[in-house]
Amino acid sequence: MLKLARRIVALVFLLGLTWLFLDFSGTAQGMLGWMAKLQFLPSVLALNWVVVVVLLLVTWLFGRIYCSVICPLGILQDAISWVAGKLNLNKNKRKFGRFSYDGTKWHAIARVVIFALFVVAMLAGFGFFVQLLAPYSSFGRMVTMLLKPLYEMGNNVLATKAEEVGSFQYYQVDVWQRSLPLTILAGCTLLIVGIMAWVGGRAYCNNICPVGTFLGFVSRRSLFGIRIDADKCKNCGLCARKCKGAAIDFKNHTVDGSRCVDCFDCLETCKHGALSYSMAKKTNTPNSSLQTPHSADSKEPSRRAFLTATAAVLGASVVKAQEKTTDGGFATILDKKVPERNNKICPPGAISLKHLQQHCTGCQLCVSECPNGVLRPGSDLLNMMVPEVSYERGYCRPECTRCSDVCPAGAIIKFKGDAEERQAVKASTKIGTAHWIKDNCVVLNDGVSCGACARRCPQNAIQMVPSVAEDPKSPKIPVIDEEKCIGCGACENLCPSRPFSAIYVEGVDTQREV
C-alpha cells in the first residue's frame, strides 16, 4: 500500500507539473500553481519559510519522501529506471535486480564537493551553476524547450481540424524556438539524467543533485525509515539489487538514510519479511539501520560524462531567438532584428537585473506562461537561463501579470492585491524607456505619414509633432515623454520599420511605479 500510494502521488505531481509548463491558456496555473511553490530550492530563494520548514520536518520524520513524490526530476528518474527494468532483455537481471550497494568514499566525497560548490555559487551570485543543477529547473527547461513546441504543434493541428467542423473551442498559437542554446542544454541534461537513470537508477539524484544531497543530510537519521531485521534476513542480497538508490548494505543489515528515497520497492522484494518501514530504535543495534555505510561490493561507472557534456554546452555559441517573418499571414515581410540594448529589460516585478539573477532558478515557467511571446531565455552565455524581455513577437500588455503570478522563486515578485489591483500596479510599473531612432523612421526615410507608435501607446507617452517646428505641415515625427513611458514595447513591436524598429526600449536599472 505504501508503494502504491507513493506512485499515485508521484504520478499526480509529474503530470501536473508537466501540464503546468505546457499550458498556454492559464488554466493549469489556477489549478496547479501550488505544485511549483512546493519545490524546495524555489521556496528557499523566495524565503517561503513555511514551505521550507514543512519540507525539512517531513524529511526528518519520514525520510526523503520529497525526492520520490514532489520533485519532478526525481520522479522522472524513477520512470526511466522503471522502463529500463521492463525492457531489460536479460531475464536473470530482471529476476535478481540491476543495482548494487553504493557505499564508496569517492561518491560520498563527490556529492559533498558538488554541494559545496553549489552553495558557494549561490552566495557568490554565480547563477548559471545554480540554475544548471537545480532539479526542478532542469525539469522545467526540458519540458519547455523540448516538449512544449510539440505540444503547441499538436494543439494547432487540433485547432485546424476543429475549425473545419465549425468548432472554435481551440485556437492556434505561434510555435517558435525560444532559445537554441538552451534547447541544446535541455537536451544534454535529459540525455545525461536519462542515461544515469537507465543504468544506475537514482545515480544522478544521489551523486550530483544538490537538493538531494542536502535532504540526505537531514534524512540520515530520520525518525521513520527502512529497517532490516537481522534475525529474519537471509543475506540473499535481492533487496540491494532492487534498490535504485543503491542504499542497502545487506551484509551489514544497514540502510543509508541519506541515499534512500523511500520508494518502498524493497519492501515487496524481500520474501522473508526482514524489511519494514518503521520507527528507529533507540539502541544502536543492527536493526537500527540508518547508519553511515562503511563498505561496498561494487562501484558504479564514472560520472565524468556529466562534466564533459556540461563543458560542451558551455562552449556553445549564443544565437538569437527565432523571429516572425509574416505580417498577420497576409504578406511576407523582412525579419525584424533584435536591437542591441545597453540595458536588459527585466520582466515586470523583477525589480532589477541583480535581483533577478540572485533569485531566478532558470526553470522557464515564466517564459512558458507568457501569452504575448515577450519573455525568452537570456541572450548571453552566463544569463542564458534568466528570462529577459524582447519585443519582436509581441509587447508586454499592461493588464497581464502572468509571469509574476507564476514565479515560485520570488525572482519576479507578485504584485499585491486582487486581480484588478495587480493589473493597475503592473500598468504603472516602469521596466524601460522608449527611444526614437531618426534614421530608421519611415516618416523621414519614405516620406509617408505613420504615427503607429503614438496610436498604440497605452500610456499616451508618445505625441506626433511636425518634424520642422516652423512648418506645421511638415511630416510628423514621434516625441516621447520619458516620465509617462513604462517600456511596455508596444511602439517597438508595432513599428513598421524594418529590419530595425524606429523606436526601441532600453531597460531601467531599477523598476519603479510612475
List the keywords:
two-stranded antiparallel ribbon; 10% strand; 23 helices; 514 residues
Q: Which SSEs are present, and which pair or pack?
A:
Layout: H1 2-22, H2 27-37, H3 40-45, H4 49-62, H5 65-69, H6 72-87, H7 91-96, H8 105-124, H9 127-133, H10 135-164, H11 180-200, H12 203-207, H13 210-219, E1 224-228, H14 238-242, E2 248-249, E3 254-255, H15 265-269, E4 275-279, H16 304-314, E5 326-327, E6 331-332, H17 353-359, H18 365-369, E7 375-377, E8 387-389, H19 402-406, H20 419-427, E9 429-436, H21 442-445, H22 452-456, E10 462-466, E11 476-480, H23 490-494, E12 503-513
Antiparallel strand pairs: 1-4, 2-3, 5-6, 7-8, 9-12, 10-11
Helix pairs in contact: 1-2, 1-10, 6-11, 8-9, 8-13, 10-11, 11-16
Question: Your description of this structure?
Answer:
This protein is mainly alpha-helical and 514 residues long. Helix content is 45%, strand content 10%. The protein has 23 helices and twelve strands. The chain has helices at 2-22, 27-37, 40-45, 49-62, 65-69, 72-87, 91-96, 105-124, 127-133, 135-164, 180-200, 203-207, 210-219, 238-242, 265-269, 304-314, 353-359, 365-369, 402-406, 419-427, 442-445, 452-456, 490-494; strands spanning 224-228, 248-249, 254-255, 275-279, 326-327, 331-332, 375-377, 387-389, 429-436, 462-466, 476-480, 503-513. The strands form six sheets. Strands 1-4 form a two-stranded antiparallel sheet. It has a two-stranded antiparallel ribbon with strand order 2-3. Helix 1 (2-22) packs across helix 10 (135-164), helix 6 packs across helix 11 (180-200) and helix 8 packs across helix 9 (127-133).
